[in-house]
Design brief:
There is one protein chain. This protein is mostly helical. It has a domain of 36 residues. It is 81% helix and 0% strand. This is Heme exporter protein D.
Length: 69
């Protein structure tokens, strides 16, 4: 599509609330997904570090079960 001006582009032929609203919702969902992935990665790294420390200290199976739960 070609628009006559920037104003026409932003108005999207009267469908601007739907078009820009869907872009906004998508951006929020993608940002939320990134935040959740970063948190889960951080938690997983913490659990792995605790597991490594438990194994190094000779904690054995009991220490592993505490970390997994």
């Amino acid at each position: 599509m070609q628009w006559e001006s920037w104003s026409a582009f932003w108005q999207m032929g009267g469908a601007a609330p739907f078009v820009w609203g869907s872009y906004g919702i998508t951006a929020l969902l993608v940002a939320g997904e990134l935040i959740m992935v970063m948190r889960r990665r951080k938690d997983a790294l913490r659990r792995l570090l605790r597991l490594r420390r438990a194994r190094a200290s000779g904690g054995g199976r009991r220490a592993f079960e505490e970390i997994v739960e």
